[in-house]
Amino acid sequence: MKGGSKEYWFVLTAESLSWYKDEEEKEKKYMLPLDNLKIRDVEKGFMSNKHVFAIFNTEQRNVYKDLRQIELACDSQEDVDSWKASFLRAGVYPEKDQAENEDGAQENTFSMDPQLERQVETIRNLVDSYVAIINKSIRDLMPKTIMHLMINNTKAFIHHELLAYLYSSADQSSLMEESADQAQRRDDMLRMYHALKEALNIIGDISTSTVSTPVPPPVDDTWLQNTSSHSPTPQRRPMSSVHPPGRPPAVRGPTPGPPLMPVPVGAAASFSAPPIPSRPGPQSMFANNDPFSAPPQIPSRPVRIPPGIPPGVPSRRPPAAPSRPTIIRPAEPSLLD
C-alpha cells in the first residue's frame, strides 16, 4: 500500500495502525490510533490504476501531520476489500455504513461502541491463542498418556490375573518344556566344553613330559689367545720343507743379505735372524696343517753393497765437522728417589 507518495509496510492491530519503511519492521515511521477514525472510498485517478480508499477523523482533526485524511492505495480490488474487512474488525467502519447505522439505531438494541468492539476483538484473539496452545499440549500428551495406561494395565494383569490364567490352561507341564532350539544349543555347548577340557589335558601332559636341557656354558678359548701371543710371527716362522710332488725345489745360490744384528747371549730362540728368502713353491693342502701358519710372503730384495771408490780418486764428500768432546757429568738425584 501507499501512504502519500511513498511505499510503506502497514501493520494493523486492534488499537492502532502503524507503518514501517520495509517488511523487516525495524524502522517505524508512525503509529496512528484508531479512535474516531473512519474510511471512505476515493475515486481512482485518470492516469492511475490503483484502487484507493481514505482514512479520516470524525472530529475534523488532522490524521497525520497537517493532513485531514490519508489515502491508501492497493494494486487490486481484492486487497482493498481485505483491508476494509480488517478495519471493520478493528472498529473502523465505512462512512456510509455509519450513516445507515445512525438511521436504524432505534432498531438495534445492542451497543456498537468502537472501543467495545476492539476489546472484543482482543479477547477473541487471546481465546484463539489459548485454544491453539491447549490443542498442541493435548497432541503432545496423548501418546504419553496412552503408553502410561498400557503399562499400568499390563502391571495389573500380571499381579492379579496372570497366575490364575496359567493354572487354568489345559497342560501345565508343557509350559516348562525346553524348545528344540534351546536343546540343540545346550548340546553344542556341552560338546564344546568337553573338547576344550580334553585339549587342556593334552597341553598339560605335553608341558609335564617335556625335558628341557640347559644351555651349555660358553667355550673357554683363552688358551688360543695365549698360544697366538707366544707363537712366532708368520714372517719369522720357518718355511715348510715339504714340497709338492712332481716339482723339484728351486735351487738358487746364496744371495747377499742385510747385515745381521748381534744376538745377545741368553736371548730366546724366537729372536733368531730371519732365514734367506727363497721363491715359494705352490702350496699343497697337505703341505702344512698348522692352522697358525701365515700365507707365503713376497721375497724381499737383497741389500746391495755399493762398490768402493777406487784408489787415487778424490772423494766428493765434504770434510767431516769436528766433533765436540763429550763431558760426562755426575747424575743428578731424581725426585722419585
TrEMBL record:
InterPro entries: Dynamin (IPR022812), GED (IPR003130), GED_dom (IPR020850), PH-like_dom_sf (IPR011993), PH_domain (IPR001849). One of its GO terms (biological process) is receptor internalization. Residues 1-92 form the PH domain. One of its GO terms (cellular component) is cytoplasm. GO terms for molecular function: GTP binding; GTPase activity; microtubule binding. Gene3D superfamilies: Pleckstrin-homology domain (PH domain)/Phosphotyrosine-binding domain (PTB) (2.30.29.30). Residues 223-234 have a biased composition (Polar residues). Residues 293-322 have a biased composition (Pro residues). Signal peptide: none annotated. SUPFAM superfamilies: PH domain-like (SSF50729). It comes from the Eukaryota. Residues 120-211 form the GED domain. Pfam families: GED, PH. SMART domains: GED (SM00302), PH (SM00233). Residues 208-337 are annotated as: Disordered. This is Dynamin 2. The lineage of its organism: Eukaryota, Metazoa, Chordata, Craniata, Vertebrata.
